[in-house]
Design goal:
This protein is mainly alpha-helical. It is built from 4 helices and no strands. Helices cover 75% and strands 0% of the residues. It is globular, with a radius of gyration of 13 Å.
Length: 96
Amino acid sequence: MTWDEQVPGLRKALCDAAVEELGWDPVTARQLADVAIRRWRSFERRSKPNKRTNELRLQDLLQGLRQGSPIDVNYLEPGDFERLTPRFGELLSRLS
C-alpha cells in the first residue's frame, strides 16, 4: 500500500487522537492532522542525515504543530501539543 493510499486512514486516526486527547472539534483536528502529516513527511528533506533520530523527529513535529496550529497557541492549555505529539508520532511511525 502506497503512502497516498494510507493518508485517509491516517488522517482519521490523527483526528480521532486530537479529538480524544484535546477535546477539539473534528474540523480543527483535521487541519492539525494535515499539518502533522506534512511535517512528518518532510522531516528527512529538512534534516541532516546524521540528525535523524526519533527524538529529533518528535521535537520537529512538536515545533510544526505549534507553528501550523489552526488555533492561536496563546489560547491553548499549556502542554496540549506536548501530550499530543507522542500519540501523533506513534501513529505516523506505524504507517510510514
